[in-house]
Amino acid sequence: MMENFHTHLPYCKHASGSAEDYIREAERLGFSALGFSDHSPAPAYMHDVQGYKMAEAQMPLYRDEVRKAAHLSSIPIYLGMEVDVIQEEASYLHEVIMPIMHPDFLIGSVHFIRLNAGRHIGLHEIETSQLFDRYMEQLLWGIEQSDFLFIGHPDRVMITDYVQKHDKQLRSAWRTIAQFAKKHRKPLEYNTSINAGMSPCVSPVLWEEILKEGVSIVVTSDAHAPERLGLGLSDGYEWLRTRQANIVYCSQLLAKKE
Ligand SMILES: [Zn+2]
Ligand SMILES: [Zn+2]
User: What residues have a C-beta under 5 A from ligand 2, the ion?
Assistant: First the structure.
């Protein structure tokens, strides 16, 4: 069984393809379900993160494109969003996004660190232990939130040299993430667009801790183009299966919620 609940449309300004293109590709690949999860909008005052997010006014267009395309699909289609895990965005999520979107699911991901002055920096700018601590604070907060069906790419923080260099020394932090996810029964994502071609994966120590703890794992390709929908998925599933990972499927998690 294969499915993918992490896909992006051009509303976020850095993806391509239409909902229908993704559905045709999902059918071709033999998926049993497909979820859309484009980057959610952010409050206007967060001007430094707008560049990679959809505009607030585009939410109805995105929603309607997915819901309409779903009628032409032979497999179940789910409408979702990838939301930034930033405490200050939580009220915006509940007051602005949810009433318009009525999404089937949300992914919670950390792409930015919020600094005290209300400024945001990308994960690639985490170059000190203080900034890494701030990252951890946001991620752990995200794991606690019941809004998110799963947590996106907990290993994307490896894009920074600082974290890459300290993978081993950060073992206790990785263990905390794994134990926290287990405690809150929050699946973590094995993102094949990050881990594809990495041997065995981008953060061996983090994944050792996640697997040891038996955390639920969702596999996705984080596709930003229809032709990348299936990228690395079979390898990802296989890598996890040979390690007796606790793989879960979003369609089943959602069926249980109903
Ligand atoms: Zn993206
Ligand atoms: Zn992401």
Answer: 109, 152
DSSP reduced 3-state for 219: strand
Cα–Cα distances (Å) from 126 to 84, 156, 252, in that order, read 17, 12, 36
Helix (H) or strand (E) holding 33: strand 33-39
Instruction: Please choose, from the candidates 73, 77, 130, 125, the residue with its C-alpha nearest in 3D space to the C-alpha of residue 105.
Output: 77
Assign domain 3-257 to its CATH architecture: Alpha-Beta Barrel (3.20)
Per-domain residue ranges of the chain: 3-257
Distance between Cα 201 and ligand 1 center (Å): 20
Identify the three-state secondary structure at position 232.
coil
Rounded to the nearest whole angstrom, what is the distance from the C-alpha of residue 114 to the centroid of ligand 2?
16
Q: Render pLDDT for 6-36 as a digit per residue (tens, 0 to 9).
A: 999 999 999 999 999 999 999 999 999 999 9
Read off the pLDDT of residues 98-156 as tens digits, 9 standing for 90 and up: 999 999 999 999 999 999 878 999 999 999 999 999 999 999 999 999 999 999 999 99
